Amino acid sequence: MEREVQRVRQAFLSGRSRPLRFRLQQLEALRRMVQEREKDILAAICSDLCKSEFNAYSQEVISVLGEIDFMLENLPEWVTAKPVKKNLLTMLDEAYLQPQPLGVVLIIGAWNYPFLLIIQPLIGAIAAGNAVIIKPSELSENTATILAKLLPQYLDQDLYIVINGGVEETTELLKQRFDHILYTGNTTVGKIVMEAAAKHLTPVTLELGGKSPCYIDKDCDLDIVCRRITWGKYMNCGQTCIAPDYILCEASLQNQIVQKIKETVKEFYGENVKESPDYERIINRRHFKRILSLLEGQKIAFGGETDEATRYIAPTVLTDVDPKTKVMQEEIFGPVLPIVPVNNVDEAINFINEREKPLALYVFSHNNKLIKRMIDETSSGGVTGNDVIMHFMLNSFPFGGVGSSGMGAYHGKHTFDTFSHQRPCLLKSLKREGANKLRYPPNSQSKVDWGKFFLLKRFNKEKLGLLLLTFLGIVAAVLVKKYQAVLRRKALLIFLVVHRLHWSSKQR
Amino acid sequence: MSKKGDGSAVKDPGAEPTLGTNPFEGTLRRLREAFHSGCTRPAEFRAEQLRALGRFLQENKQLLHDALVQDLHKSAFDSDISELIICQNEINLALKNLQAWMKDEPGSTNLFTKLDSAFVRKEPFGLVLIIAPWNYPVNLNLVPLVGALAAGNCVVLKPSEISRGTEKVLAEVLPQYLDQRCFAVVLGGPEEMGQLLEHKFDYIFFTGSPRVGKIVMTAAAKHLTPVTLELGGKNPCYVDDDCDPQIVANRVAWFRYFNAGQTCVAPDYLLCSPEMQERLLPALQSTITRFYGDDPQSSPNLGRIINQKHFQRLRALLGCGRVAIGGQSDEHDRYIAPTVLVDVQEAEPVMQEEIFGPILPIMNVRGMDEAIEFINRREKPLALYAFSNSSQVVNQMLERTSSGSFGGNDGFMYMTLLSLPFGGVGHSGMGRYRGKFTFDTFSHHRACLLCPAGLENLNDIRYPPYSDRVQQLTRWALGSQSCTLL
């Protein structure tokens, strides 16, 4: 393991990954891989999650292609240095932020969107000029295998490598030193990752999870609301980190919600959901059993059918759920939707705030003031109002959690920024040393006053002339007073400075 | 606060240690309750806190000056330009821009979300902890505090117990100005800090050494608390042959010996050719004499070492290599003369740890390439300096190395620019702050998308069942656009 990481580090140190052209080439190669090997990729995802090809394509591959295109289009601009506003003391200098790669980054993926959650961070890591070690989830075996097979065929084999394995291998991997770790997964392992990172002072981005609440107000169109929720909840058989985890609503709405979700499920997946090509399965037996245990003692309004052999769990809704029961204690990550009745929006807000900050928050209402209040009085990674999932889709948005749902964010430019060091640079000239005398000891009160003047004012081009005159006048007075003997030399110096300033301000 | 639930989903107020055994329990509970009450959210509250902080600085200038003299023998000039003015500047900037910073940032929408309202909301994290060191005790406590308050958080401030004078002023006087529901100063040494770190915070901002940085991050990991770590390292300073040695000497010496070298971004060691070294030594001597006189110990412009422990540590470093300039010390005064060491070996202690004192070792290299190789073999520093008349050399140094920040042909002048963020990379730290960057550091950027409640027809395309026709249409529509979604 150590040798593998060393090899990648050596490759990074060679400097190969840094030129823009190289990064663009790699991204283009990645794009080719996705397009040319689409069938293989889809087949892998499909067999891991019993997903239809269309779903795999539309949920994972499309997003990846979009992200690559977005990166290709914008990268040339992103890699350039960004000048910043200067002050009086630095007005003749170059001041800017230079993005630079961090080095060797580790991306640990999850099994629920096994392709997307590896490739989307990878795109940004490559774009930022890093070398990357990829650790796909071992639970989505087929995707892990296909990634290990395909990536070396298209990308630089020393800069970007795939390491597969289980808990043991991951633990070993985490002992190595990286320059950034991006982990997608659960809270428990998130803590382990951060603790391992702390030993090397490695910054981390943790995309975790939680119970994403979904508040349904009285004042809404329940038909539409239930369709949207059904779509977001049962997509990927509920195994989505930003799926609406549970519903909060007034008790009187429960029956209608149940009815409408039931109808929508029928519309989406047919009479016999098990036979719908668009309905997925639970990833493995362990999770199947886990979700099953959440149903114990609950009032199943509809659904609840299971088949262990195929790891099938029907779209299920629970009503009158007691917040203290197991289904409300952990992220469900399955096609079970509890409804917890609350009396009003105040209670809903309190309920949400008593719990860990979720990755997503959903609120459905025609009343914009209520939506605003929900947002103002709670916290979460992100929010979608009157729909679910959609805030994930905007690549201009940072996607990430807060509190126990995670730290850091990525997608689009945010991935580039996550994997870059934005290095502040100030470049001066070795000339104009006279201007520095102000700061050198021995000090005096006038220097203090001048220090205040220069440090508390911002550089304003329009005031340049006036400031210059004042500066000249006072400097002249100070100098005459203190440095009689070297006056002539100083006067010449100031003349030159002014001349240069005048010249350079003319040039702007 | 609510009762605990049975599992992890319901918040146990941060898995707090047993009531009564931890001295900070009460304070933290009070601050958390205040945050939940929402009192720190309105702009006016935050602005008032910032104005109060400004008043604290203005009304207690003498007190602060005296404390800085007591702690670090800092002259009024040095205190003003490196501590008080900087803080004032930050407060002014925050007050001026608070509304703009707090405003929701619009997000750009794509084809499928054109009808929505998309924005990023800046939210306070909640209860944040700021741990500050002793070398710029006012600056490094208050500048993060400005951003934390501006961002609407409740703040626990932990000043360093080593800079006792300043600690006292911050503990006794500062709380009188700020709203004590939302702000507290906690005191203590390593043991108390350990107890403090057992608690859950929503953000931890730490300035100090990499060693303690690891401890802080490990503690933060237990609660999944995000951190900003402003650490340190050995900041290299490359001096090219194509330079005026006197100008270089002026600039390097000023930044090296400021605050008796106790600056995280000070040039830690020089890299230059033996020929350049020959020219630099007399130039450095001349500069030191000019700045501090023939007897630097009597100069009011030279600071002192913070305490005996560091004094002893630095005195031991004087034995490395050969003293070319300075080398004197006075234990009683905790004084170490502005010193330059030559003939230093890489394995010697002065090249193994961050010096943090008025000692400047010179390492010889044969040229820029060797200097870059030397630098890249070591941990990424907080700052990196390169002096050359050739902009090509300066740019090469910049491109082929990594560091928190970079100064070309000068020392840490960039610290005066609030438009530049300040932070480390690798062992020198993670995260960044100053100016708006502090506000952003202490804010959670929450992506919000408000979709239309109606217009459901537009969504039909995303719902199953996916007939062949729908599949084809979707592939075509999405394949020809650069948008990421279903």
From TrEMBL, chain A:
<keyword id="KW-0276">Fatty acid metabolism</keyword>
<feature type="active site">
    <location>
        <position position="207"/>
    </location>
</feature>
<keyword id="KW-0256">Endoplasmic reticulum</keyword>
<dbReference type="InterPro" id="IPR029510">
    <property type="entry name" value="Ald_DH_CS_GLU"/>
</dbReference>
<feature type="active site">
    <location>
        <position position="241"/>
    </location>
</feature>
<dbReference type="InterPro" id="IPR016162">
    <property type="entry name" value="Ald_DH_N"/>
</dbReference>
<comment type="subunit">
    <text>Homodimer.</text>
</comment>
<keyword id="KW-1133">Transmembrane helix</keyword>
<dbReference type="InterPro" id="IPR016163">
    <property type="entry name" value="Ald_DH_C"/>
</dbReference>
<protein>
    <recommendedName>
        <fullName>Aldehyde dehydrogenase</fullName>
    </recommendedName>
</protein>
<keyword id="KW-0520">NAD</keyword>
<dbReference type="InterPro" id="IPR016161">
    <property type="entry name" value="Ald_DH/histidinol_DH"/>
</dbReference>
<keyword id="KW-0492">Microsome</keyword>
<keyword id="KW-0560">Oxidoreductase</keyword>
<keyword id="KW-0472">Membrane</keyword>
<dbReference type="Pfam" id="PF00171">
    <property type="entry name" value="Aldedh"/>
</dbReference>
<dbReference type="GO" id="GO:0004028">
    <property type="term" value="F:3-chloroallyl aldehyde dehydrogenase activity"/>
</dbReference>
<dbReference type="InterPro" id="IPR016160">
    <property type="entry name" value="Ald_DH_CS_CYS"/>
</dbReference>
<dbReference type="GO" id="GO:0005789">
    <property type="term" value="C:endoplasmic reticulum membrane"/>
</dbReference>
<dbReference type="GO" id="GO:0006631">
    <property type="term" value="P:fatty acid metabolic process"/>
</dbReference>
<dbReference type="InterPro" id="IPR012394">
    <property type="entry name" value="Aldehyde_DH_NAD(P)"/>
</dbReference>
<feature type="transmembrane region" description="Helical">
    <location>
        <begin position="464"/>
        <end position="480"/>
    </location>
</feature>
TrEMBL record, chain B:
<feature type="domain" description="Aldehyde dehydrogenase">
    <location>
        <begin position="32"/>
        <end position="444"/>
    </location>
</feature>
<dbReference type="GO" id="GO:0004029">
    <property type="term" value="F:aldehyde dehydrogenase (NAD+) activity"/>
</dbReference>
<dbReference type="InterPro" id="IPR016163">
    <property type="entry name" value="Ald_DH_C"/>
</dbReference>
<keyword id="KW-0520">NAD</keyword>
<dbReference type="InterPro" id="IPR015590">
    <property type="entry name" value="Aldehyde_DH_dom"/>
</dbReference>
<keyword id="KW-0560">Oxidoreductase</keyword>
<feature type="active site">
    <location>
        <position position="264"/>
    </location>
</feature>
<dbReference type="InterPro" id="IPR016160">
    <property type="entry name" value="Ald_DH_CS_CYS"/>
</dbReference>
<protein>
    <recommendedName>
        <fullName>Aldehyde dehydrogenase</fullName>
    </recommendedName>
</protein>
<dbReference type="InterPro" id="IPR016161">
    <property type="entry name" value="Ald_DH/histidinol_DH"/>
</dbReference>
<dbReference type="GO" id="GO:0004028">
    <property type="term" value="F:3-chloroallyl aldehyde dehydrogenase activity"/>
</dbReference>
<dbReference type="GO" id="GO:0005737">
    <property type="term" value="C:cytoplasm"/>
</dbReference>
<feature type="active site">
    <location>
        <position position="230"/>
    </location>
</feature>
<dbReference type="InterPro" id="IPR029510">
    <property type="entry name" value="Ald_DH_CS_GLU"/>
</dbReference>
<feature type="region of interest" description="Disordered">
    <location>
        <begin position="1"/>
        <end position="24"/>
    </location>
</feature>
<dbReference type="InterPro" id="IPR016162">
    <property type="entry name" value="Ald_DH_N"/>
</dbReference>
<dbReference type="GO" id="GO:0006081">
    <property type="term" value="P:aldehyde metabolic process"/>
</dbReference>
<dbReference type="InterPro" id="IPR012394">
    <property type="entry name" value="Aldehyde_DH_NAD(P)"/>
</dbReference>
<dbReference type="Pfam" id="PF00171">
    <property type="entry name" value="Aldedh"/>
</dbReference>
<comment type="similarity">
    <text>Belongs to the aldehyde dehydrogenase family.</text>
</comment>
<dbReference type="GO" id="GO:0006629">
    <property type="term" value="P:lipid metabolic process"/>
</dbReference>
<keyword id="KW-0443">Lipid metabolism</keyword>
